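Re: the 358-residue chain
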Amino acid sequence: MSVNAQSLVGKWKISHLITERTIDKYIIYKSEKERSYGNHLSINEDGTFSTYTREECGMSCFTTTLGIYKMIDENYIRFTIKSISKSGICEGESKPNKNIGLYYIHREENIIRLLKSNGNIEEDKQNVIYSKMITYFFNFQRMFPSGNKISSTKIEKMSEKDMVNTYLTNLGYTNFEYLFSKNIGYDDFPKIILTKIKGEYQYLNLHFSYPKDYYLSIFNYEPIRKIDENINKINSDKNLKAINIEEIPTHHSDIIFSLLTVFSKTEKNTVEKIIHQVFSKNFTITNIYYLENETPIYIEVDIINLKRNPVLPSQSAFYIIDWNANKYIFKNNNYGSRKFEKEKWEKIIELSKESIKN
């Protein structure tokens, strides 16, 4: 056994038990506690390994797997699963004696990623980058609970690459490339697939519907990208004129006061941005409106509950695709409201337009 294996010898926490199933990626890391719950991995100096589950509740199914490993070099390790035993509320034993393949060892500061590999180190290094890109995108798209997937299509089961090729070809694309996929669920699905379409990175969603149906869709965040560009232009425009309007009339007795700040283009006399703040004893509400050609393109809602949690605001926003048709993409930063209050917002926008004309 190579001396480089010594960096892996020891006890680890592991993202999945090593079984006969094909897993594209394992994450292993050291636990701060000597005895902790979850999945564990022991890599021994004699070339054997074991994985097992430690549960807090005794009424559980406990799985233990045993096998052997071989360090190819400092970058690769190969696992062979020998036996799997179950105890607790489930019982059973099997001896698959299965070589589950080669894994590329990618070391980071606090974790080690074991990535399924064909042995090409340049591809493996590139796949690490692709994996991080998908993780970043996954965290980004999670802010949009209603999603923005289009062209969802039921597709025949075949290799993942062939499914992508068939799907994109049927959509009319000719210049595309399958790059990498990553499981983002608790089991094998759903997956996010990274592709290149017309030279640009694009993300697809592969979803499995029990018992046998597969669906592919493409994420469409181009409208969000364009709106974000317009928001940045408005926020960086130093020529906007600001007008403050206090004591906006309200029918709510618990509101102490409100403040409206309107930002406008002086030469065009058009409203570009509006900040509407409402203050009461128990909460503050801040609505921020961004407009293009005096039509809303983005509305952000921040609510601070002074009694419950004054530190963490409730934040949500609406990327408006078609204001007249009430078509928008909802964005939720944490636990914000989903309510699209168009009539209420229209009154504030009209009041803002009147204020810069007077």
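The helical segments are 121-141, 160-170, 222-236, 342-357.
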